Amino acid sequence: AEKLHRMMRDTVAYYYGDGMFYGWTLAAKTGTAEIDGKAPTCWITGFSEDESRPYAFALCIEEGESGLYTAGAALASILAALG
Questions:
Q1: Would you say residue 83 has pLDDT above 90?
Q2: Which of 22, 45, 65, 67 is deepest in the core (most CB within 10 A)?
């Protein structure tokens, strides 16, 4: 579990960029499922490392662009609203 946690945290810190989720320290992973004849289904799943905001999330959006640019952007908006 610790190794998976570290890999998910590194993905946010070094690939997506913590700035995408301003004010949050997340461990997460995105995915994009391609479907013939349709725009892809996009997802992001993970959790906050902030003890004062102990949220876990799984967000799936049909017919988007990609996990990062569709589901990740939607999650960023949700987290911004939560503060």
A1: no
A2: 67
In total, the chain counts a number of residues equal to 83
Q: How far apart are CA 18 and CA 2, in angstroms?
A: 20
Report d(CA 42, CA 49) in Å as an integer: 23
As a whole number of Å, the CA-based R_g of the chain is: 13
* Phi and psi at residue 67, to the nearest 5°: -55, -45
**pLDDT above 70: percentage of residues in the chain:** 100
Q: Rounded to 5 degrees, what are φ and ψ at 4?
A: -65, -45
Threshold 0.85, pTM exceeds: yes
83: exposed, middle or buried (Cβ count in 10 Å: 0-12, 13-18, 19+): exposed
Closest Cα to residue 81, out of 35, 12, 19, 23?
23
